[in-house]
Amino acid sequence: MIEYLPRSKQHTELYVTQYGIEACSHGHYHGPAVRDYYLLHYIVDGEGIFEVGGTRYELRKGQGFLICPDVVTYYEADSTNPWTYCWFGFDGQLAESLLKQAGLTMDHPILHYDRDDSIYQYFTFMNESKGYHKARETRLTGLLYSLLSLLVEFGPAMTTYEHKESRAAIYVEKVKDFVETNFAQKITIEHIAQFIGLNRSYLCSLFQLQMSTSIQDYLIRYRIQRACEMMGNAELTIGDISRSVGYQDPLLFSKIFKKVMGASPKLYRSEARKI
Q1: Which of 154, 171, 205 corresponds to the end of one domain?
Q2: pLDDT for 16-41, tens place per residue?
Q3: 215-230 and 189-196 helices, crossing angle to 10°
Q4: How many domains does the chain have?
Q5: Which of 54, 84, 151, 178 is in the most buried spot, having the most CB atoms within 10 Å?
Q6: Claim to verify: residue 225 and residue 265 sit in the same structural domain
């Protein structure tokens, strides 16, 4: 069985796209093909093979494999002892960093977990969540977080470098989330650093390294991007838009807008209406 789920508009940081289970027939295969989300398979019984990037893995009960977005993969059930697997499709801003903490990446796609049947139980819980009506999406997201926390807890120990890289990705997402939530306010880099709990200079260096731009430039460009989106609303004046994206001084807003977009807000709006 398989259930497909609509993309979450509420839980953009992490959400379930589908889940399912299948007792495969002898030699059943899928691919070569790509996905546009993460897909984690866990083998409940039997055996099979998984191929990615020119490498072939022979897998059995208690193991699993991760399919990353836009990566060509192929997998096939054993001809004599075909596998039964359950799977979890998911995506979101935190998906990659959480998987890295669990030791699962495009270069290391194999899962090892034979402690108990907890992973299969999460599939069961997801299926049982059909009984939820108003809160099912939140329930599924919570179960996905719990599943990934299990994999992180009992996954391979990360090297110091991998741990730093994973934490850096999380901090960058927190900066982006803070900016996207509070861009209309009078925020500073110091405010962001205090919110995240890191030294201002360290956070700025970390963000620059990960994003190849400064936090200040990211904030400016995000504000201007949102301003451009508001230009189509004829009821808003340039001053209204300026204040709505965090600039109390319309003249300063116009100066920054022109620097980023190459045209004044008035000219940009005029040209946009011609399209």
Answers
A1: 154
A2: 999 999 999 998 999 999 999 999 99
A3: 110
A4: 2
A5: 151
A6: yes
AA identity, residue 206: L
Q: Do 188 and 141 have their domain in common?
A: no
Pair (132, 193) in one structural domain: no
Q: Indicate the residue among 154, 181, 205 that finishes a domain.
A: 154
Helix (H) or strand (E) holding 168: helix 160-182
Report the 10 Å Cβ neighbour count for 118.
Answer: 14
What is the distance between the alpha carbons of residues 271 and 99, in angstroms, rounded to a whole number?
Answer: 44
**Cβ neighbours for 73, distance < 8 A, ≥ 6 positions apart:** 31, 32, 33, 34, 50, 51, 52, 67
Query: Where do the DSSP E strands lie in the chain?
Result: 2-4, 15-23, 29-33, 38-45, 47-52, 55-60, 63-67, 73-77, 84-91, 110-112
Distance CA 131, CA 136 (A): 8
CB-side neighbour CA atoms (13 Å) of 211: 22
The pLDDT assigned to 163 comes to 58
Mean pLDDT in residue range 207-220: 94
At 156-209, the pLDDT tens digits run 755 455 556 667 888 999 999 999 999 999 999 999 999 989 999 999 999 999
Q: Is the pLDDT of residue 259 over 70?
A: yes
